[in-house]
Specification:
Number of helices: 9
Largest sheet: 6 strands, mixed
Structural class: alpha/beta
Shape: elongated
Oligomer: single chain
Low-confidence stretches: none
């Protein structure tokens, strides 16, 4: 088995509103796709409350385990936005208003015709030694401290910040993916073929995902992922051949049973 040269990453979602179910998180999906396109392997996602001890423990643990940690949430103007302070404590540095961050907030306030109050100024407090992450949506910046990238929790703002994060990441080999769709065939019927291919292609990842539980539509998606295009093609070809008798048997139970390759 070859050594994976790709850098690794973890996502850390911060916020009581996520864990309570009041807010549906979409940032994990966005960041996962962002990292995948850069060849950065996402290995862990952790969600924590707006709790100082939890945030500090989590970021310390993740930052020494992975090449990069990307966090969202807790850098707004309210009392429960404690992420910046927690990051300063996690890295044992002081925190204070960052002149450039404060200027960005003041300029935005002037353009909008309102006065920057003390609550808004909290968003200019940045741990010492951190580099700002540009926010093209609402000006209030995120920041990078060590290998940790601290971003807003609002999806549109977070996504805008990723443009400034991308150039700072070491890229790797992009993971390629092929998907086979078994229509009207349950995943247990494909399990033997999938297991055999998985044993012989150790550098690839093979997964089985059932879809549709309604009488009129159900089946299984088989996803083959890896960095070696030739190995991927060979494995998919072998899997298609191995599934031919499975499809034939499936047609005895349902004439609509079939095997297709789909995009994604």
């Amino acid at each position: 088995m070859t050594t994976n040269p790709n850098p690794t990453a973890a996502i850390m979602i911060i916020g009581d509103e996520i864990l309570s179910g009041r807010t549906v998180d979409s940032n994990v999906n966005t960041i996962a796709r962002f990292l995948g396109a850069l060849g950065v392997d996402l290995n862990e996602v952790r969600m924590v409350r707006d709790d100082e001890a939890q945030i500090i423990e989590a970021v310390r643990s993740l930052s020494v385990t992975y090449d990069y940690v990307l966090t969202t949430g807790g850098i707004g103007p309210t009392h429960d936005d404690i992420t910046a302070d927690c990051m300063a404590k996690a890295f044992s540095v002081d925190i204070s208003e960052h002149p450039a961050a404060l200027k960005l907030l003041q300029e935005r306030a002037e353009k909008a015709g309102w006065t920057l109050n003390d609550n808004s100024r909290r968003m200019a407090r940045i741990p010492h030694g951190a580099e700002l992450i540009a926010n093209p949506v609402s000006a209030a910046p995120g920041f990078q401290i060590g290998n940790v990238f601290v971003m807003a929790g609002v999806p549109k703002i977070m996504e805008g910040m990723l443009a400034d994060v991308a150039p700072r990441l070491r890229t790797g080999r992009k993971v390629l993916s092929r998907t086979l769709r078994l229509n009207f065939i349950g995943e247990s019927w494909a399990a033997d073929a999938l297991r055999d291919i998985d044993k012989r292609y150790a550098d690839l990842s093979l997964g089985s995902y059932p879809f549709g539980l309604l009488p009129g539509e159900f089946g299984t998606q088989l996803v083959v992922r890896g960095q070696d295009a030739e190995a991927l093609d060979a494995a998919v070809s072998e899997l298609k051949t191995a599934l031919e008798p499975v499809v034939e048997e499936g047609r005895k139970r349902n004439p609509q049973a079939s095997l297709d390759e789909i995009a994604g």
